[in-house]
User: Fold this.
Amino acid sequence: MSDVCGIIADLKREGEGEYVIPTCTVFGLNEEEMKNLAGKGLKISDSNRRIEGVEINGASPFKVMRILCKEYGWSTDGEVVQFDAPGDRTANMWTLTRKA
Assistant:
């Protein structure tokens, strides 16, 4: 059996070679992992506690994935699922797994 978490982020092109990802949403982490991410200086919020997922502001999904993979045993195959998002953005979703 494996643990699974997901990271979703909207990507917006601001100009030639300039892309911004101000927030990503992470699903499937436990409380301890979220506290550890906050301890790494990531700004974690939960705008709707009734629905699973927390928002991480000021860090790209790549930084979040580096921390989760390097320090907490998660891994990714690098595949991204993309779909259109409102406001001329593209949503990107990554799946991370870990042996339970």
